[in-house]
Amino acid sequence: MAETRKASRYVVPFAVAGVAAATIGLVPALAASGDPDLPEITAQQLIEKIAASDTQTLSGTFKVTTDLGLPSVAGLADSFAGGSSSGGSSSVDPQERLTQLVSGSHTLRVAADGPEKQKLTIVDGSDEYSLIHNGDDVWAYDSKSNEVFHEKGDASDRPAGEKEVPGTPKELADEVLKAAGDTTSVTVGGTAKVAGRDAYQLVIKPKQSGSTVESIKIAVDAKTGTPLKFTLASIEGGKPVLDAGFTKVDFARPAASTFDFEAPKGAKVTEGSEGPDGAAHGKSPEDLEKELEKEFGGLDGLFGGMAPGGAGAEGMNVIGEGWTSIAKIDTGAPAPKTGEAPKEVQGFLDALGDKVSGKFGSGTVFKTKLVNALMTDDGKVYVGAVTKQALVDAANAGK
After folding, report:
1. 3-class SS of residue 3
2. Which of 27, 49, 126, 142 has the smallest count of CB within 10 Å of its CB?
3. What does the alpha-carbon distance between residue 261 and residue 241 come to, in Å, rounded to a whole number?
4. What is the rounded radius of gyration, in angstroms, for the C-alpha atoms of the chain?
């Protein structure tokens, strides 16, 4: 119990880094060149077009480039787990591999055939890392280490109480625009060519000052309404925080064999939650989600207040509204002191953090180009897609 509590004191800055991986999962995207001449369309009509899209099948290649302004995260997973790469965490671990997308450029291949069949492959030179979902089976395979992770899943295991969604494209569009409200500007920003396809660009911008988001641009396939491009820009300028998009896409049904998988001869296979000393690499996404839920109310709770319409988890205080919402969490544990964390972790925290003080006392702002978090020395956390000054002002007001 003591070790768990101690470890939780390092979770906030790591969650700040990890939000990029979550963001990457929202929409695949990246741009090509050209400005196709398309019929005029309003923002409302374009949102309706996205909502009406019923793309069930596709395959293609896209490139993801992420720049959160973070220092290198190499080796941090092993340090955080308290072991080496040979003992603490496996290269086949989906959590670890997807976290690598937090920085740099990566090429991915994707395929989908309805809700029961998907495949994602990260290409790294001659090496590949694949995640395959085929019915009740989920596989992860790392060709470099020849390691396999396998888990059986069942739809009946999913939690009940899912939110009811609007039933028509018009209702969906109304919900999106209502959530945007007075805090958001939603416009059509011209057209683009993405992977050789004509697309409209939906541009979303905060109207409020204090947000770290400059704009979000989504390129929408003019024919199918499928999002093809997602670019997230920070008020800091420079390279986009996230620039990801299709370089090739085909909406035909992929061959059934695309989703077949058989562990190669001699491969090390980890089943379910197996792993040395219960290491995190053997845990399923559902297990990890439950742990986050227990510690912080889940990712939705931790970051739910940072976008229009977001809501904090029970027991969490959400300050403000819209893009400048800030989640306030009382961890009950004082911030880690210098020298308390492993060397690699301490270096990462020092590179991320700025010491601040005010009426609230003192603390450290862990910063990226998108999500910032203030952890006070007495264990309170203020987190959101807002500037450092906005966090300090919120902490001062809290006193």
Report:
1. helix
2. 126
3. 34
4. 22
Q: Specify the pLDDT at position 203.
A: 93
Our CA dihedral for 102, 262, 114, 58, rounded to 10 degrees, sits at 60
Which whole number is the average pLDDT over 356-373?
91
In the sheet with 57-67, reading across from the earlier edge strand, the strands are 184-194, 197-206, 213-221, 227-234, 242-250, 57-67, 103-113, 117-124, 127-134, 137-142, 147-152, 268-271
Measured N-to-C along each axis, helices 169-180 and 43-52 cross at an angle, to the nearest 10 degrees, of 130
Give yes or no for a contact between 244 and 213, defined as CB atoms under 8 angstroms apart. no
pLDDT value of residue 343: 65
Given a cut of 80, whether residue 210 has pLDDT beyond it is yes
Cβ of 141: how many Cβ atoms within 10 Å?
A: 23
DSSP string, 17-53: HHHHHHHHTT------S---------HHHHHHHHHH-
Tokens 């409020």 label which residue? 208
- Domain positions in the chain are 285-398
Q: What is the DSSP annotation of 101-126?
A: GGEEEEEEEEEEESTTEEEEEEEETT
User: In whole angstroms, what is the distance from residue 161 CA to residue 202 CA?
Assistant: 31
Between CA 199 and CA 124 the distance in angstroms is 29
User: Looking at this protein, which amino acid is placed at residue 385?
Assistant: A
What's the CATH number for 285-398? 3.30.310
The pTM assigned to this predicted structure is 0.72
Instruction: Name the most confidently modeled range: 10-19, 37-46, 332-341.
Output: 37-46
Return the beta strands (E) in the chain as ranges: 57-67, 103-113, 117-124, 127-134, 137-142, 147-152, 184-194, 197-206, 213-221, 227-234, 242-250, 268-271, 317-319, 326-330, 353-358, 361-366, 372-376, 380-384
Nearest C-alpha neighbor of 204 from the set 175, 223, 181: 181
Q: Report yes or no: 101 and 136 within 8 Å, Cβ to Cβ.
A: no
Longest dimension (CA), the chain: 63
- Residue with the two structure tokens 């609007």: 166
For 84-111, the pLDDT digits (tens) are 443 444 467 776 777 777 778 999 999 9
Owner of token pair 């660009």: 201
Residues, the chain: 399
Task: Find out whether 367 and 354 touch, Cβ atoms under 8 Å.
Answer: yes
pLDDT number for residue 346: 61
Asked if 17 contacts 368 with a C-beta cutoff of 8 angstroms, the reply is yes
